[in-house]
Amino acid sequence: MREENDWRLQNQAKYLSGVELRWEKYVKFSEEWEHEHCQFCWAKFMDVDDPEVLREGYVDESGDRWICEECFEDFRDLFGWRVVRSK
Prior knowledge:
The chain has about 90 residues and is an alpha+beta fold.
């Protein structure tokens, strides 16, 4: 668990505290909306073979908020996340 004054914490508690997350492969939403960013560190998620981007991560039920594995591990206790099975 990271310190509560970690630079990555920017009021995400308002919308990510206690939510259910699932581990998913990222799939682009459309040709215009082809990537997402980690809600904490801004790592990029894309559906391409590129070592600079992430292809899987934790996502909320809406599919809008992605969290990389490192940030998930760092903040899981602070945010009280529950992991559920993928759809």
